[in-house]
Specification:
The complex is a heterodimer of chains A (84) and B (216). Chain A is of the alpha+beta class and 84 residues long. Chain A is built from 2 helices and 3 strands; from the N terminus they run βαβαβ. Chain A has a 3-stranded antiparallel sheet, with helices on one face. Chain B is α/β, with parallel strands linked by helices. Chain B has one domain: Rossmann fold. The N and C termini of chain B lie close together (10 Å). Classes of the chains: A alpha+beta (84), B alpha/beta (216). Chains A and B meet through α1 and α2 of A and loops of B.
């Protein structure tokens, strides 16, 4: 069965996010005064698997081996049956 | 001494490192990322550049290539391994040195000469400097801000090799810009010693990094 995987990678709480800080300053130039800007990376793909739990386990392994750096990142995984 | 220079798609300081190693009296040779067996070499340098376009994170994709397994063998055999700039990012991604080099505090690519303090002279690369010697080498990176959760452990184990002296251009924790493993044989530095290996370049302070490898 095919599944859609979505991985959201964010910086750990308290980590400096220079990109978000720059975006916040840029929005201020347009007179939008916002707070707590953050950016996340979203990685999406489809994957074959026997069941949702097994797919999630495999994707979690991908996060730990390549997609995230445990020193600075938190991540969340969403697995859903593939929409045709 | 045969020193291997690792090449990935996007490496761009490889020939500079080759030249600096020759100046230091080494016998350098290039190694493509797909090579697994590095037993012919007595030391390894991972040069700077933008391996795999810095996709995902700087160094993340290079960190899972076959040549890294060969480098791990070298480390186990006690051969010195030096990572410069992107090479340093790769060694941190692999976990051969602690911490991470991530986006500069000011979100800019910084290319400038820096004053550095040699904090640890018990590595092959820094053995020819004096403790706390101030040297001049350039940096050129967008992702060089050093961060670790274990700063105390790093200090206690004498794993800080280089730190910025007069200013901290990228916002690194405690101005650290060079670290090593506990044995001091794997060393990751953001500044470019090869770009400071001849006086005509503005400084030859970095040449001792390569002479130190040959001497080791």
């Amino acid at each position: 069965m095919k599944y859609d995987a979505e991985i959201k990678i964010s910086l750990k709480k308290g980590m400096l996010n220079p990109e978000a800080a720059t975006i916040q300053r840029a929005l201020a130039l347009l007179d939008y005064n916002i707070e707590n800007a953050a950016t996340v990376d979203l990685i999406k793909f489809s994957i074959d698997g026997s069941d949702q739990e097994q797919v999630k386990k495999e994707v979690d392994e991908m996060c730990q081996r390549l997609l995230c750096n445990p020193v600075i990142h938190d991540y969340s995984i969403k697995i859903s049956p593939k929409e045709e | 001494m045969k020193v291997g220079i690792i090449r990935f798609p996007g490496s761009n300081c490889d020939r500079d490192v080759f030249h600096a190693l020759e100046l230091a009296g080494a016998e350098p040779d290039f190694i493509w990322w797909s090579k697994r067996d590095l037993s012919d070499f007595e030391a390894i340098v991972i040069p700077g550049g933008f391996s795999y376009g810095d996709y995902l994170r700087a160094g993340a994709i290079a960190a899972i290539t076959p040549v890294i397994e060969g480098i791990k063998d070298c480390v186990n055999e006690g051969k010195p391994v030096l990572g410069i700039c992107n090479g340093a990012q790769i060694l941190a991604e692999v976990g051969l040195v602690p911490g991470v080099f991530t986006e500069n505090e000011n979100a800019k690519f910084i290319c400038e000469w820096t004053e550095l303090k040699v904090e640890n002279i018990n590595t092959p690369f820094t053995s020819m400097y004096k403790k706390n010697e101030i040297i001049k080498m350039p940096i050129a990176h967008a992702e060089g801000r050093y961060y670790t959760e274990n700063i105390k452990e790093l200090r206690d184990n004498d794993q800080i090799v280089l730190s910025f002296e007069s200013e901290n251009p990228n916002g690194s924790i405690e101005a650290i810009t060079g670290v090593c493993d506990k044995e001091g044989l794997v060393c990751a530095v953001m500044p470019h010693p090869e770009r400071a290996s001849e006086t005509v370049l503005g400084s030859d302070d970095g040449l001792k990094f390569f002479k130190g490898i040959v001497k080791y």
